[in-house]
Amino acid sequence: MPTKDKIKLNGGEFILKESLSNDVFTPEDFSDEQKMMKETIIDFMDREIWPDKMKYEEKDYDLTVHAMKKIGELGLLGVSLEDKYGGMGMDFVSTMLAVDYVSGVTGSVATAYGAHTGIAILPIYLFGNEDQKQKYLPKLASGEWFGSYCLTEPTAGSDANSGKTKAVLSDDGSHYKISGQKMWISNAGFADIFIVFARIENDKNITGFIVPNDSNNGIKLGEEEKKLGIHSSSTRQVFFTETKVPAENLLGERNGGFKIAMNALNVGRIKLGAGNLDGQRRSISISTDYANNRIQFKQPISNFGAIKEKLASMATSCYAGESACYRAASDVQSKIDEFESNGMSKQESELKGVEEFALECSILKVAISEDMQICADEGIQIFGGMGFSAEAPIESAWRDARIGRIYEGTNEINRMLIIGMLLKKAMKGSLDIMTPYQDIINNKSLENEEKSDILNDEINLVENFKKVFLLLLGKAFEKYGAEIDKNQQILLSLSDLAIEAYLSESTLKRTIKNINRSSEKDQTDQINMTKLYIYEASQIVQKKSSDVINSIIDLKDQADIYLSVNDKIKYSKNPNIFDLKTKIADKIISENKYCF
Ligand SMILES: Cc1cc2nc3c(=O)[nH]c(=O)nc-3n(C[C@H](O)[C@H](O)[C@H](O)COP(=O)(O)OP(=O)(O)OC[C@H]3O[C@@H](n4cnc5c(N)ncnc54)[C@H](O)[C@@H]3O)c2cc1C
Q1: Strand pairing partners for 175?
Q2: Centre of ligand 1 from the C-alpha of residue 387, in Å
Q3: DSSP labels for 308-364?
Q4: H or E segment to which residue 80 belongs
Q5: Which of 252, 319, 431, 566 is the S-S candidate for 127 at Cβ 3.0 to 4.6 Å?
Q6: How remote is the CA of residue 216 from the centroid of ligand 1, in Å?
Q7: Which of 159, 184, 269 is the best mutation target for the ligand 1 pocket, counting ligand atoms within 8 Å of the beta carbon and taking the most?
Q8: Residue 122 contacts residue 44 (beta carbons within 8 Å)
Q9: How far apart are CA 207 and CA 190, in angstroms?
Q10: Cβ of residue 412 lying under 6 Å from some atom of ligand 1
Q11: What is the Rg, in whole angstroms, of the alpha carbon atoms belonging to the chain?
């Protein structure tokens, strides 16, 4: 039988078209090399980092530097860089895998690793000239040097392009003098170089610079910030006073710094999604172990439905996050390959590949950072009073998780970006939203080729989540037109619909793909998690769409829209949610860990 060509979707297209499960990458598709890398990192983290977990709560910044050096010795600081810059030249999925498993033990190491490998190294790798790359990347890849990314200022947070830091060119054009104040700078306490964003004259946009750390060159650090979590992650203010920076240290183009900053953040966001996965796995595993050993009423508390319900939900969210993260990572890599095969340079291809999926990057950042927080919160509840104790590892997991919703663009900003980017693509003509919207109004079906008897309702629901999203986006656009971006509460609700559609579809496709290559029996727990995830998603879709309908649709038209939405998110056979949760939890409890 002739095999069908793989359907490759562009960024944002998931909301309009269906991917077939066989075309979607899953964690079960890791190559042998990737599996080996995963095992090596887990082994390293268990052996070298986990035993010091409690010490990371004591503001031991040197411990983080020590960990980063060791991670450098493993080659993991340069996974994404080409060999000629001292890197491992690995593909995008492997770099996601590295950040995933390096980040699970403590948010302090996760943040140091994310800041160094993501937002500090990547601006040089993606935008630097050859001399800059040769000079800085090998040392940053080996861990001889560390980097920081200095964008945020006291008056420029979410509004990142409004920074006041100035760069003044000398009369002879040989150097710039940078003056300004940066705050919340991760790794500042031990950074050898800073990527600094500053404005030249009255330029519209900021410009990026590579600034070596030198206290004799007008650079002063503030005290370590006293933070809720990530206690051993160095976070300081950095003050620049007429810091002399050679003109050749300008990164990319003058006025191009905002583009650099945003592109670095796109990568940072998808990696932050991945970086919140292993924290969930570990939280689930330690909570399961605690529940299996904690005896109350003469039995392990894991026997109780109230505990099972939590473990099942925690595992299901983690499974969904993994599914979405690695699906997106592979889509990014396919795009990079496509650009490269069309003659684009490696760096340009990487840049454009991630940029293409910027919308998915934001989805993953928001969804998985919030799942991590909920997971750690439920973990604390399973630990009971012990969970509130600083002596239990779940306490720091909860505090560390909180920052994920704030940095790399707050989750509010990212939610609004999801819709903003989709509309921008539609305006530019690269995504046709109007035709499917009209089809929905006219009750035409989106293409739906996937078949699975056991997940048939879920296949229909996922298709319909997209329809509900498109229907309400269309209604909102009809009402507000280009002014839609001024209606943030609508954007937030709509983005939640898009998030649920993406995570639900990714989960569904992963499970169907694995059923197709093994069996329903083999995938029993995964089927249960898929059903549970999509049921919970349907509740969110119901709530968020009601919020939108009640707020923007005229009263006389609301009944029709409600009918249409409710019809779309109904089951032919309602799942038994308590039964699903019990079965999922029983599996984890019997394995005493997250085991999918
Ligand atoms: C521990 C830590 C480490 C960090 N590391 C770095 C780093 O290494 N480098 C770096 O440059 N920065 C770093 N940051 C800064 C971080 O990226 C910013 O804190 C973040 O972008 C938010 O900016 P802000 O704190 O100024 O909040 P604000 O921008 O003041 O936002 C406050 C609130 O208002 C909301 N808000 C703001 N604007 C809008 C809007 N237009 N519409 C709706 N809501 C809005 C936000 O969502 C948020 O809820 C770090 C921060 C922390 C806490």
Answers
A1: 246
A2: 29
A3: HHHHHHHHHHHHHHHHHHHHHHHHHHHHHHHHHHTT--HHHHHHHHHHHTHHHHHHH
A4: none
A5: 252
A6: 30
A7: 184
A8: no
A9: 24
A10: yes
A11: 24
Q: Which residues contact 35 (CB under 8 A, 6 or more apart)?
A: none
**Is 410 a pocket residue for ligand 1 (Cβ < 6 Å)?**
yes
The half-sphere exposure of 445 on its side-chain side, counting CA atoms within 13 A, is: 8
**Residue 157 CB–ligand 1 contact under 6 Å:** yes
Indicate which atom in ligand 1 lies nearest the CA of residue 410: 47
- Taking only the tens place, the pLDDT of each residue in 201-221 is 999 999 999 999 999 999 999
Helical ranges in 384-523 per DSSP H: 393-401, 411-428, 434-441, 456-480, 488-517
> Is residue 20 classed as helix, strand or coil in its secondary structure?
coil
Q: Is 406 in the pocket of ligand 1 (CB under 6 A)?
A: yes
Distances (CA, A) of 154 to 159, 163, 404, 516: 11, 9, 20, 53
E strand or H helix that includes residue 37: helix 32-44
pLDDT of residue 60: 97
Report how far residue 58's alpha carbon sits from residue 18's, in angstroms, rounded to the nearest whole number: 49
- What distance in Å separates the CA atoms of residue 205 and residue 208, rounded to the nearest whole number? 10
User: Which pLDDT belongs to residue 3?
Assistant: 53
CA–CA dist 570, 464 (Å, integer): 9
Is residue 262's pLDDT more than 70?
yes
Q: Which two tokens stand for residue 356?
A: 């293409």
Determine the Cα–Cα distance for residues 54 and 393; give it in Å rounded to an integer. Answer: 7
pLDDT in the model for residue 441? 86
User: Over the stretch 85-141, which tens digit does the pLDDT of each residue have?
Assistant: 999 999 999 999 999 999 999 999 999 999 999 999 999 999 999 999 999 999 999
Q: Is the shortest distance between the CB of 407 and ligand 1 below 6 Å?
A: yes
Ligand 1 atom at minimal distance to the Cα of residue 182? 11
Q: Is the CB of 184 under 6 A from ligand 1?
A: yes
Q: How far apart are CA 473 and CA 205, in angstroms?
A: 31
Is the minimum distance from the CB of 413 to ligand 1 under 6 angstroms? yes
- In the reported structure, the alpha carbon of residue 207 is separated from the centroid of ligand 1 by a whole-number distance in angstroms of 20
The closest of 307, 349, 364 to 506, measured between CA atoms, is 364
Least Cα distance to 349 among 331, 330, 332 occurs for 332
CA 369 to ligand 1 centroid distance, Å? 15
Per the CB < 8 A criterion, the answer to whether 56 and 64 are in contact is yes
From the CA of 111, give the closest atom in ligand 1.
3
Q: Per-residue pLDDT for 294 more than 90?
A: yes
pLDDT of residue 1: 45
Q: Any idea which residue has 């919340």 for tokens?
A: 184
State which ligand 1 atom lies nearest to the alpha carbon of 151.
Answer: 11
Q: Distance from first CA to last CA of the chain, Å, rounded?
A: 33
For residues 429-444, average pLDDT:
88
Contact yes or no for 287/378 (Cβ under 8 A): yes
Residue with the two structure tokens 């169907």: 512
- Cα gap 331→324, rounded to integer Å: 11
Residue nearest to atom 17 of ligand 1 (CA): 407
Q: Do 199 and 165 meet the contact criterion of CB atoms below 8 Å apart?
A: yes
229 has a pLDDT exceeding 90: yes
Give the model's pLDDT for residue 90: 95
CA–CA distances in Å: residue 457 to residues 454, 460, 461, 546: 8, 5, 6, 22
Q: Does 420 contact ligand 1 (Cβ within 6 A)?
A: no
Residue numbers annotated as active site: 408
